[in-house]
Request: fold
Amino acid sequence: MISRAEAIQQLTAPGQIYELQNIDIKGKTCPWFVSGPQTLSQLFAENLSDQTFYVYGDERYSFNDVYGRASSLASRLISDFGIKPGDRVGIAMRNYPEWPIALTAIISIGAIAVAVNAWWEVDELEYGLNHTKAKVIIADQERLDRLMRSEKLGNVAIISVRSKPVPNAIQMDTLTCDDAAMPQVDIAADDNAVILFTSGSTGRPKGSVSTHRNIISSLLSWELEIMCNAMQRVTKRKPSADRSYQIATLLAIPLFHVNGLLAVLLSSYRSQRKTVAMFKWDPVVGAELIEKEKIATFVGTPAMTGDLTAEGKRTNRDLSSLLVVGGGGAARAPSQVSGIKKTFKNAAPNTGWGMTETNSIGTSIYGDEYLERPESSGRRHPVLELAIIDGSGNFLPANRRGELLVRGTSVISGYWDRPDANGESFWEDWFRTGDIAYLDDEGYLFIVDRLKQLIIRGGENIGCSEVESALLHHSEIIEASVYGIPDDRLGEEVGATVYVGHQFDAELLKSKLKSQLANFKIPRYLEISENSLPRIASGKIDKRVIRASHLKKLGIKA
Reply:
């Protein structure tokens, strides 16, 4: 069997479709796919067809439909709103079809799409739009209701989507009905294209700025990984008997999140893949859509994957079209990895490590390789380099734990108007991830914890992820969140909240943990929840809110 390194070497060789060459990018030498599209506008224009692109409820749009409406909107953004290359235009809505239409229009005229977190409340919306100095916001009714309560938005023009009439707002439908050609604008690969906000747990969110090249390198890296897997034939499985239908993917993650935008939506262009969008995540509806639309790929957080696996066991729906169940956002429990293979007839599990700041790529692992190493995030993508350093900035050898660094073509050059954050996050040409990790002798990445998620109990460091993993090994536990609880004597004690869905004996659980964890790692404060744990917008469990709630119940001040 051909090795991964051999497959990459063949696929990226001169003259091949994924040819890689080292080029100078803003003073740094980085590998680049010289044969692929150079900008997102080129990606859009080169992949037009009458194939179904976007499905939302009973609405269906082809690639040509979306581009045609985007062309009209782009012309009006220039003529009616004075949008020029480099101007910021916000998008704040659910995953309606207007989302990809707006994105295509904004990017194709050289403007920067500001993907506003649709979960934000008034002050957060104000901050995001004012911070980026957005000239226009394209928003749905839910976001408009919040914006109408704002007194600090300034002169942001409003384009409304699926809303009742709003004072001083123009409905998007009236801007997408002209038979206009896409305006021709000169765009370079290293021009800024998208601003995504990081899901920070403290302070104001940071605007992660990606260029066309950053995003394209990510999209083509995924394609390269797929081709590598095909050459290696990592997983020996029978394909679905009927492959005459169009390959489809389920969009269950918000498009303002890097995985939803890149791994699902933008990855669909070159493959001509159908994207089926959900109003919000619901495993029952998700299973219905998988059966109805013959969904082949699903990407979700561990909680979403767990929901779908449970629904797959419960339902009689035909989910055999699923070929890949992808992950991201956090590590899966090993039992969940094997559960995917057992539950879905033809699906292979995959996952990876990536960040908003790396445009979602970093490492990946798939199929049998993943089943053999369920705690690993895989091996690095060829356009990136990884390194591990200790607290003094010394580079560490294999199997030594330290902070994970990354650099390469998909890594952003900085945050929007945040020199302070840039100074903290970038070290020379490396990006400091804040993840505690190690690389083994074969180059597989293992994420151990986050720098800011270490509990220091009496001088002993306790990794939250380690305790969470131990909790999730118990089949009764669906979700777990571990955090530090202030303690006068020891500094911190271990606290945890677990979702079990029924009455459960906390002391019995602690007793069971003694076979897995040292005594000082076993949660002293354990809260049992009969409801799913709250999450932040990206789908990750909201540790900050959970911890604050537990502290309040305990009567302990943070």
